[in-house]
Amino acid sequence: MDLPASWNRLPPAALAGAALGFGLWLLSPFLTGRAEPWDASFPFYLPAMLAGGAIAGTAFPRRAGAFFLGVWLGQVLAIAVLPGHGGDWFPVGAVTTAVGGTLALPTYLAASGLRARRGRPPAG
Question: Rounded to two decimals, what is the model's pTM?
Fold first, then answer.
């Protein structure tokens, strides 16, 4: 299957962020028993965001803006298309996920900085 040509222009960091954001909402019911990842009874959302940020920062350094935008849009898309979300609460969810998306930035920036200090050329 060929992807649309416009997808070739998307920074890989944005796609990684979108996968993280959407994946959290997709997997949350199966891993935590709760539809919304931040409602889990044990820490799920924060550790997943921190780990995802570190992985993406290592793989795609110097693309924090694209990564954050991807995380946020992935979560908004999940709220819009996955069952049990959206409705009247969609605007609140869109804002809340933007705030939640910032949780991945500290580890993204740290990993990106460490990778840059090691002298590797940036990916994507």
Answer: 0.84
